[in-house]
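Bug #77: duplicate submission created two jobs. Keeping one. Sequence:
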Amino acid sequence: LLKEGPDEHFLIRIEALRAQLRNAQGRSGEAYVILKSLERIVSIKYWPSEEKSFLVGLEYTLNKKYGDLLRNAEKLSEASLYEESIPLFREIVDAIEGFYYPAANDADETGDDRSIQIYYRLAEGYFYVGSYGEASVILDQLVSNVEKEKKRELLYQSGYLTDVQKNAFYLLGRVYQEMGKREHASSIFLTYLSLDEERALRYFNEVQWQLGLMNFQREEFSKAEEYFKAQSGSTGNIKLYYLGRLYLARIHLQRGE
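Kept job's structure:
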């Protein structure tokens, strides 16, 4: 019937029936995608009331389903139950990529970073369970998406980056470290430090510590000293600040000072 090129009235009925069939088969996401595709062809204001109500009902059902999943995933993640949170975040990401999590897809169009946060939390889960390959794939994409949107200098200086986008650079550096890619990690950490003023970076002390430690292990003590000295004693991870002080003492001992 679709190949016959039906008029708009008949097209609405055909696509609505296709969506109802998918929904009856328990494939509500596919049903929603069919109707949203139809909406791009024929404005919803021209639809019969039954079809309009069907689309609204699907949106409500899908938003509730994935909203509940997201809340459960976040609770598990906050409790450090990453093995349990990963499948939930993965299911939500699949819905976003399939365009059947309406709230997240609509948020993307308005510049909201809801989807970015979900991808980040999934990558974070993979990181903490040691699945560094899976984490790197997601984080590489988040970082590359940032770099594609604008030229790096303009993007960073404009305050355009959200906190979660900045954190993605940090976590990617940690992933590279765990994968033994120290040069990649160092490059990403240096990029992270360029993103904002130190007080605005959540992981400022952690990154200064990691760069200091990597240079110390390479016996590049002058560079290590710069990073350890740059750590803040008033913000961020204070434990790492004091560890940095201890390594500064070791550097001075190496020099006989």
